Amino acid sequence: MRSTPAFASTPHPVSGSAANAPVLVHFKNVCKAYGTETVVNNVNVEIRKGEFLTLLGPSGSGKTTSLMMLAGFESTSSGSIEMEGRRIDTVPAHKRDIGVVFQNYALFPHMTIAENLAFPLQVRKVPKAEIATRVDAALEMVHLGSKGQRRPAQLSGGQQQRIALARAMIFKPSLIVLDEPLGALDKSLREQMQLELKRLHRELGITMVFVTHDQSEALTMSDRVAVFDKGRIQQIDTPTMLYQAPKTRFVAGFIGENNLIECTVASCQDGRVRLQTAGGGNLVARSDQALAVGSRVTFALRPEQIELDVSPSTAQDARRHVMSGLVRDVIFLGDQSKLVVSFEGIGEVFVRVSTRFGMHEISAGTTYTFSYWIELAHVFPSTEIS
């Protein structure tokens, strides 16, 4: 399988039914500063109707602030946010036609579930008869049709989160924003709610912008993911492209597990760069950039892209790089084993191998032959090293 060059200048496609949909929201050079500290720096992104876009990044990266500016709970310092061609960053939050789901649910504890759902409709002066119909439909939508007369404290965390989602949807907004809505749930319930959210998104076709710091959650649920770091979007792409073709060192290290090795360029020719580590080890990667000999770069290769037990034909394949390594430790993970392998001149590297065919019986303290497809390895120049 060919990987897209790490620094290719490519568009950021939307997958699924939203791929050809019109733009709903447009961030144009949006910045947010608190005093002298800039927390969102020149963000530009288009969100299409029906898309599930996730804003992903570590704490303090600017993702939540960007969401809050979209929802109207934070003002922009400069730039603009448009919805369907109309500027909304100067419009009050309650007039933006945006549903909001918070991590803490924000349900009114003194109201019944039905009353919580009815509240946003009452504020919008919807007729009583229609309110009753919509409340019933919303409860059925989230599979809680019998819970309407209970109070929030009588529901589980997952049920409360479903009600919070239903309340955000009940007035039929153009967009729903979700600020780490699954963060308070345990692992099993969180995974169930991920599927529930995907089901509702698929069935209703509503546009969703979701904030999380959990990369697995982002890759599982999204049409596209915008990866934030230090107030900027490092890359916005489909989950597949983020994983297979990271465009910066930060994305390579933040999305999934990656072996990141500091090297210098020994030669660069015909899209192939030969590298030398500080310990004198040799590596090879693909690069479409003209990298100067002696320049510092980071080599990146995922653990599952390193293969064990190379056949003679593989060893002679010019498209692969072959290395001999001593297995220091074997960690059994069920369907996979994670190996800690020491390569001379390179250091310790993680390798993942399937446990089918008895692979989990690999012995620590034994030297094996490994290889990887050169096409799958990425290099990031020193300007990308934080």
Describe the structure.
This protein has 386 residues and is of the alpha+beta class. Helix content is 23%, strand content 35%. The strands form four sheets. It has a six-stranded mixed β-sheet with strand order 6-7-8-3-9-10, sandwiched between helices. The chain has a five-stranded antiparallel β-sheet with strand order 13-12-11-14-20. A five-stranded antiparallel β-sheet has the order 15-19-16-17-18, with no helix packed on it. Helix 2 (113-123) packs across helix 3 (128-141) and helix 2 packs parallel to helix 4. The longest helix has 18 residues, at 187-204. It starts with 22 loop residues before the first strand and ends in a 5-residue tail after the last strand. Mean pLDDT is 89; it is low at 1-12.
Secondary-structure-derived class:
alpha+beta
Main sheet characteristics? 6 strands, mixed
Shape annotation: elongated
Q: Provide the spatial order of strands within the biggest beta sheet.
A: 6-7-8-3-9-10
* Rounded Rg: 25 Å
The total count of strands amounts to 20
- Contiguous low-pLDDT stretches (5 residues minimum) are 1-12
Helix content: 10-25%
The helix count comes to 9
Strand content: 25-35%
**Span between termini:** 30 Å
Question: Averaged pLDDT, please?
Answer: 89
| SSE string | EEEHEEEHHHEHEHEEHHEEEEEHEEEEE
